[in-house]
Amino acid sequence: MSRTRVLASNALAEQRVLVTGAGSGIGHAIALRFAELGAHIVGLGRRKEPLDELVAEIEGLGGSAEAHPCDVRDVEQVEDIVDRVGRSGGLHGLINNAGGQFFAPAEDISQRGWSAVIDLNLNAVFAMTRAAYPFLREQGGSVVSISLSGVERGSMGLAHSVAARAGVLGLTRTLALEWARDRIRVNCLGPGTVLTEAFLAGVTDGAVVDHLIEDATPLQRATSADEVAEFAAYLCSDAGQMLTGQLLHVDGGAHLGSGLHLLPEENT
To answer: Engineering a disulfide at 23: which of 45, 74, 124, 186 sits with its beta carbon 3.0 to 4.6 angstroms away?
Structure first.
């Protein structure tokens, strides 16, 4: 068994957890790990095929899952799916993982590009979390939003994404205060450099990748998707009952180092 797996095998038994962006990368790892811990997974993503593969993989491991293709930027679609999922069996957890960005100096980001990243990484998180609220309130549930390492300090090349994720952090801390009365816990995770296919497709300069890991991360290694998944599961488990309003960095100390900057060396 992987050393990253520290929770008891039934830590999330009988929970129903919705994971956005579940078809690939960190979301896929979270969905698998939560299913291993006994949760029923509701996977959302833009493309049906990877979601179907996820469901088959979970069921092949003896777990339980369902999938719903969804554009999380479409508020009406989000509200409809969450309402149907919640009414069919309740909702104990929400993992806001869907997100994305491109890398560019701030002066090269168009208004359209800015708005697209804000919409996906901030507005969609609010819509999804708001839609889930009545069902999470019934269970005293948990919300975990996947953020970025260094969101409080800035990352060159990510002005739009850092602005959106900083907004999610502010939202998280506000909801942690407002929804404490409902026993809903709301937290963020800040992964470091996770070498997903999407990340490597966006950062094609190997020197930048090497810098992120070898120079900007004190522990000098990438964060694995499995490590992010284990922390997300901890926050949704009984072991994490006293954690709310937090940003937990799973980044090898990168938020303390020189910063995870996504511009080539000549631009920095």
So the answer is: 45
Q: Could you tell me the two tokens for 34?
A: 């939560």
Other beta carbons within 10 angstroms of residue 221's beta carbon come to 12
3-state secondary structure of 42: strand
Q: With pLDDT > 70 as the criterion, what percentage of the chain qualifies?
A: 97
- What is d(CA 40, CA 18) in angstroms, rounded to the nearest whole number? 9
Write the DSSP string, 39-53. Answer: PEEEEEES-HHHHHH
Choose among 240, 212, 130: nearest CA to 179. Answer: 130
**How many other C-beta atoms are found inside a 10 Å radius of the C-beta of residue 204?**
9
**Alpha-carbon gap, residue 53 to 268, rounded angstroms:** 41
The structure tokens 């969609």 sit at 124
* Rounded CA separation 58/83 (Å): 23
Distances (CA, A) of 240 to 12, 28, 205: 12, 22, 38
Counts of helices then strands in the chain (DSSP H, E): 9, 7
Q: 72, 98 in Cβ contact below 8 A?
A: yes
Spatial distance between the Cα atoms of 55 and 65, rounded to a whole number of angstroms: 5
Q: Average pLDDT per run of 10 along the chain, which is 268 residues long? A: 78 97 96 97 96 97 96 97 97 96 93 97 98 97 94 90 96 98 97 87 82 91 95 96 97 88 60
What pLDDT shows up at residue 268? 45
**What is the pLDDT at residue 5?**
79
User: What beta strand segments (E) does 74-179 contain?
Assistant: 93-96, 142-146
Structure confidence at residue 208 (pLDDT)? 83
Is the pTM of the predicted complex or chain greater than 0.90?
yes
Q: Which two tokens stand for residue 52?
A: 């179907």
The CA radius of gyration of the chain, in Å to the nearest whole number, is 18
Q: Which residues pair with 146 in a beta bridge?
A: 189
